[in-house]
Specification:
The protein is mainly alpha-helical and 104 residues long. It folds into two domains: 38 residues; 48 residues, no CATH class. 56% of the residues lie in helices and 0% in strands. The protein is globular.
Length: 104
């Protein structure tokens, strides 16, 4: 049975959320999760808003870098950083090229 084509969320990050949901669903399938579980994971990841739901990001090694990036870009956004600065910061953290914190 073919799946109906899901609606990709609108907005600047809709396609990225859709792709992330597909990756999570594929990982669940690789772990032999039941179809209902895979669909629930896909829907949960697709609906996830990291700026509103940061506390729902798992505290495990697989999500550590992502959670760190979200925490840092939220703080930068609150301080008035531009979208370009925020995206650049996110990419540096996710790629592992961001500098380390230093004590002042």
């Amino acid at each position: 049975m073919a799946h109906p084509a899901p609606k990709i969320p609108e907005g600047p990050h809709g396609k990225l959320r859709y792709d992330r949901a597909k990756r999570h669903a594929a990982a669940a399938k690789a772990k032999s999760k039941r179809s209902e579980e895979i669909h629930a994971i896909f829907k949960r990841v697709l609906a996830f808003d990291p700026f509103k739901d940061t506390d729902k990001i798992p505290n495990d090694s697989a999500h550590a870098k992502y959670k760190s990036a979200i925490v840092h870009v939220k703080a930068a956004k609150a301080k008035g950083a531009s979208a370009d600065e925020i995206h650049s910061m996110y990419e540096r953290i996710m790629s592992g090229t961001a500098g380390k914190h230093t004590k002042a």
